[in-house]
């Protein structure tokens, strides 16, 4: 069965290593939802590395997604505008697959890892839809993986016989890549042309996979978006301290394995009341990937410096104002507690930047004042916080990863997504996540109307989506609709700026980049 299917009465069936699955055809695209890629991680398999699924007899219907991973909330999403996905279950290791044809093993594959800071999120949100990719002859796979205390709590040193527990959600993604290698040909995919990518924590996962000795040959391209790009890795002692505090809060003693394995799964979700405290313990995000000596021998960015992942083509991108999502709501209003979110009275001492930098407070203020003015922004604590924190946590680390990868013989491309939607009088800005609907080539759907007001430029969306598809197919994001796009290196730092007018810029905001580099990584 090849090509796009027009007969929607066809019930496509594919035989995987574990058994046959039946999908459905919609608008000419074949979709399989809720395909198991591992044994349910329940009972004695809780806190264990994922295992291949047991075989089943007959044909398994795969037309509904599997359960979402158990998860908690976030201060910024715990309201009615962002309901948590339902149903949730500890049994959550399922994927969804979109394709335009079956059995010929000719199409490149994209494995998409969802965002949510490892605390929350799902691979089956309404906006995560691979149909546009399938219509471009890309087999698109979305992943649901273990989250929160069940997937990212590092308890190796607190209980006997535990392995890489702080990275279990990433091990789930590795199991997906193994599943793809063994099964994707039957879905029309080429297992030798696999891209893994995602947004935010999904991007962190892509970088961690590049930097891991466990993933050799499982994928050929990586597309991390809006992430700290390997600078965020936690050491095992710090991750253990985070886990110890969580266990104390939920009332499970270290070493009491029976209590750990028999506790209701919901009890093991990190209580929202201590998340701020965990940030203090971790010196940043508390559930980031762990250098545990198994998945990661060292910080992911250091592993890239030592040559891991050099055989993987890299396309890395950010938005230009990532941290606006923390300071401004969707109406362009300041969040009611910006100071508690990290906006100091001065706005630019993010995570102790002033203490770490060799330059003076006056120079930091002067550099960012000039940059904000040149970009038509006010100079106030909120705007300073957005600019400094975006650079410090995401823009600079992403540029560093691209340059590091290139210096070690890898192929790197870089971009920034700069379009500012009309919501909130423009104050919403090019914030964290605003590129996601363009990635799926559906920016003017109802899910994004509150931000984009049906004004997302179609030309911009098509150029951005076409670049993603081109990279997935060839390892090069260039296409005829864009300016010339050379590879990224530490000298020129060529960066495609996606905006109403898309242009190539060499080393954007160079003065800011050099200043923040003087402080080093926030987790050095």
What does the model show?
This protein is of the alpha/beta class and 524 residues long. It has two domains: 309 residues, Rossmann fold; 201 residues, Rossmann fold (3-Layer(aba) Sandwich). The protein has 16 helices and 18 strands. α11 crosses α12 and α12 crosses α16. The N terminus is likely disordered.
Instruction: Round the Cα radius of gyration to an integer and report it.
Output: 22 Å
Structural class computed from helices and strand pairing = alpha/beta
The CATH C-level class name of the largest domain: Alpha Beta
Shape: globular
Number of domains: 2
Query: What's the rounded overall pLDDT mean?
Result: 90
**What is the strand tally?**
18
Supply the CATH superfamily name of the largest domain. Answer: Alpha/Beta hydrolase fold, catalytic domain
Oligomer category: single chain
What is the architecture of the largest domain at the second tier of CATH? 3-Layer(aba) Sandwich
Task: Determine the number of helices (DSSP H or I, runs of at least 4 residues).
Answer: 16
First CA to last CA: what distance?
A: 52 Å
Write the layout of secondary structure elements.
Elements: E1 13-15, E2 20-22, E3 24-26, E4 29-36, E5 59-61, E6 68-69, E7 88-89, E8 94-99, E9 107-113, H1 131-135, E10 139-143, H2 148-151, H3 168-183, E11 189-199, H4 201-210, E12 221-225, E13 234-235, H5 236-250, H6 257-262, H7 275-282, E14 290-291, H8 300-305, E15 313-319, H9 324-327, H10 353-356, H11 361-374, H12 381-407, E16 412-417, H13 436-439, H14 449-452, H15 458-474, E17 494-498, E18 503-506, H16 510-517
Parallel strand pairs: 2-5, 6-7, 9-10, 9-11, 11-12, 12-15, 13-14, 15-16, 16-17
Antiparallel strand pairs: 1-2, 3-4, 4-8, 8-10, 17-18
Helix pairs in contact: 11-12, 12-16
